[in-house]
Amino acid sequence: MLDVENIQLTFGGVKALAGVSVHAATGKITAVIGPNGAGKTSLFNVISGFYKPNSGQVRLAGEDISALGPHARAYRGMSRTFQNIALFHGMTVLDNIKLGAHTNLKSGVLSAGFRLPSTRREEDRLDREIQRDVIGLLELDHVQHHQVEDLAYGLQKRVELARALVMKPKILLLDEPVAGMNREEKREMSRFVTDVRNNWNTTVLLIEHDMSMVMGISDHVVVLSFGKPIASGTPDEVRANPDVIKAYLGGAEEPAANAA
Ligand SMILES: Nc1ncnc2c1ncn2[C@@H]1O[C@H](COP(=O)(O)OP(=O)(O)OP(=O)(O)O)[C@@H](O)[C@H]1O
Predict the structure, then answer these.
(1) Structural domain count, the chain
(2) pLDDT of 133 above 90
(3) Fewest CB within 10 A of the end CB: N or C in the chain?
(4) Same domain, 173 and 253
């Protein structure tokens, strides 16, 4: 589904990514892990089109999308959540979720402004679809009319996930989905991500520090260290890999070529 080939990205003298390739297979959960500064966030920003790499290619469902910006990638079925909560306060859960669908609506801003009958029909259809698919699946029924800022942290993260899903993405990019959560919230988020994949066959790519989440739900894990892939495989393979253990224990040395 997603093929990231040989990405090089430098910031001044710092090589943030030095030849990173990642394949996220259709309907699978792929995780990118690595110690602080390994290049995970940079890789996500390259994949979603926020950073332009020095070289390398990003392909989505076979199409080279390397030259496209974030909106064009979203339109092609790439959706992401962010590390920090990015919801609109003063709005309900349902309205926040609906914001994720604006590019799916056929009616333009003008007709929406005049509330033409066709726009209202489209909104009604969208409401029904959101209720049926997203709100039900993510168990947000009981809070859909609440203001988002009144919700507990874990629920707000779930609303963000819902908003990312409204577009029915081909691939869902999750940027540290359980950061800052308590154990119960982490367990719930893991279950919901797995449910989404199981129900819709969505391809999921996530970056995450929480090892129990990564090892619990991933089909495939890629490990970065100092901007390079050092291992990949099943959670069990990666866990047992001596290079990975060394990187996490702080024994790995930065390659001389990476020095600024
Ligand atoms: N905008 C930037 N300008 C300059 N250097 C940057 C920038 N973003 C990242 N870097 C550098 O690129 C390298 C990779 O950083 P990145 O944030 O991608 O790692 P990470 O694995 O996401 O780290 P963390 O787990 O701490 O979020 C680091 O050396 C970082 O200092």
Answers:
(1) 2
(2) no
(3) C
(4) yes
